[in-house]
Amino acid sequence: MTYSEDLYQKLNQLVAEIQQHPSGSLKRQRLLNQLIYQMQQSGKIWLGAGIPPQYYEDALQQTWLWFCKNLYKYDASQANVLTWFNAYLKFRLLDIRQEIAKEKKTRVTKSKDEESNSIDPIDNLPAADKVPPILEETLQWIETQGSELSSLHVRSSPHINCQVLLKHKLPPNAKTWRELAEKFGKRESTLNHFYNHKCLPCLLAFGKAQGYIDT
Q1: Is residue 189 part of a domain?
Q2: 126 cis-preceded (ω within 30 degrees of 0)
């Protein structure tokens, strides 16, 4: 059995076990967190080549929310769980590509009668009016739960906490792990591990409370 086959089998076994537990149960949540972590560590989540990081992170967060909400629909006989996840992610990124292309075409058309310059229209894509309601409510939650989220921090580094990392990982100002590693002087793996084990569960719990996901 190859590494990939072994990985897919383990992930599918986890999904099967998750599907056996009722929504809202502690056991289900723990297994779901384990599944998410193993998928993220697999290196097989599609990276969205050619997509600006902030757009990719937006699509990725939307995909995780969808994944947790719809996991009960997953059928292992149709595809392995990573393929199922990546298929949805690619559709979300396709939507973003089309939106960027449409926006670029519109801006180029409007600039025909203006003095030409070397600025790429994508650099001026408006952001404020494109914030989805779910994202807007999530960003507001991060602000209102500041004290609770900031209490969860990297060991000996209270300035690197869940409130800060969630702000940096969500659009419209999403940053890559490399950028955050340089900003905070920590290894990418350290920040990623902390985010997956402390911050992401908080985000998923919020999504559940708001009815965005069913876990």
Answers
A1: yes
A2: no
What is the C-alpha to C-alpha distance for residues 178 and 188, in angstroms, rounded to an integer?
6
Per-residue pLDDT at 29 exceeds 80: yes
Q: Write down the number of H helices and E strands in the chain.
A: 10, 2
Within a domain: 120: no
**CA-closest candidate to residue 150, choices 132, 163, 135:** 163
Higher pLDDT, 79 or 158: 158
> Is the pLDDT reported for residue 17 higher than 90?
yes
CB 47 within 8 A of CB 93: no
Q: How many domains does the chain have?
A: 1
Domain housing 97: 3-110+125-210
- pTM here is 0.52
195 domain residue, yes or no:
yes
Residue at 116 is within a domain: no
